[in-house]
Amino acid sequence: MVKARYQLIMPLRKYQKFPGNNRFWCCGALMSSRQVSILIFCAIIIVVVSALFFAFDARFLVVNVEPLGVGVIFPVLGVLGLYFSMSFLFKTGCIDSGILPRALPDEIAYMQSQGDEEPAGSGRTLGAPARYKTVQHMGQKVKLKWCVTCNLWRPPRASHCGLCNNCYETFDHHCPAVGNCVARRNYRYFYLFLTTIAVTGVYMMACNITVIVLASKKMGFGDALKTYPGSVIEFCVSGLAVISVSGLSCMHTWLIARMETTNEDIKGTFNPRKQGRTVHNPYRRRNCCLNFLFVICGPFPPSLIDRRGDMTEEYQAALEGDNSSYGATSSVPKLPPESPSPVPPNPTPPPLAPDPTSEVISMTPTASMEVRTEGEEGVVQVTVERSDSSHGVGEDETQQLILDRAGHGQQ
Amino acid sequence: MDRRNVRKIFVQRDYSRGTGVRFSTDFPRELTGKVDETTYRTTIENVNQCFDEAEALGCCNVLEGCLACMTGFALHYCFKTHYERCVQDAAKYIQQQNREVYEQRGIILGDPMDRGLRCVSTLYSH
Questions:
Q1: Is the model's pTM score more than 0.90?
Q2: Nearest to A399 by CA among A2, A15, A4, A12
Q3: Of A29, A200, A257, B64, which sees the most CB atoms within 10 A?
Q4: What is the mean pLDDT of residues A183-198?
């Protein structure tokens, strides 16, 4: 009697073998750095303070502010402040902030064969010397550095984060408070988060003062503090938040006006005193307003790493190689087939003897399965096409089911 | 195309006009005799124009950004961004060019998004 057992092996998604120090959530849809405890703490603080505000201050102000009805605006503004704070915090901390995917071996070999880099500098004595190449960039010559981890020429304004172990486009800084690097794709959310927290914090403090003042008229200052302790807690927490965030918000406002990143400001990339009088910032627009418009309302570049794409053999081999390379989606465009595919379009499953002990694997609605058998050893190749792949990969993947016919004899 | 004689070249980014996505229009010497230089340059330039349009600070883009900002960027959960649509247009254009021009000459241009916008991979038969 033939006993058939199917073991389905699903292909991995690329995020499951991502080489950087990142953490993925929701099956690769969201990502952050390894350390997210401070991000969760910030979110909890915002929610708790907002809950205290709605439970005590908002209710008091709706009832006690004259004329009656005007007080409704207080909880409405509170809801808006909470919504925008959480939305910007989520967008800052939980998305790909502009990672440059690592190069694949074929690309690395090609670039190394080009030989367009400059001779190694003489200053370094430890380890391999850094590799540079000079390119024309917006009217001035800039040096691009070869990233030995990511195996690519770092674009201008890009930098490698040692904590996350990735190269980021227009890298600003690594922010432990939001649990992510701040770079091209999430800088606007970071800046808006800081500004929203500063404004909402000031608003909360103003509401707390209003509540205490109005309550003091009825019962005295000491009694008002004892009756509304929530307002006191909110005032202290909001005060701390405003003090810590407002300075940072002002600094980034100044950086945006000058169209510089924190990284460039610290390194003095456009500082004439450090770099010489001829250096200028080519990224600045005609005026500050255009700078702000570009940063906040400018283009929204998509994520370049294909987190939810299927892991192919090529990428698996690249990850296991010395370079630990990782790329985006399918690196090789499909060549036209040389001969007709040997797999018939709709093969029928092999006839199996009815066996109550055989397992039935249920397939997900997004996958279709074709089955064919080869030989008598029971090696069954199954082609599964995942319909939810991003970037239009469209490459068929082959899965291998192992049909175990040993141990129970054949009939 | 015989797979044994397939070679790859990678057209790199051109940063001369900024950090925006732009690929070098220098004609690769490996493609000499396989495709007309003007045709190749036109293809790459049209791809560059798709990305220029994606990154331009035009009225529509700014309005889209302002509207998204006012909704707390929740708009992006419902609609694709202008940049994503331009990236798809570039991919469709490359597929069309492969179909109409390059495949019959033994060349295939790859989607730059497959390489993280680092380069445009080009396969050709040697």
A1: no
A2: A12
A3: A200
A4: 96
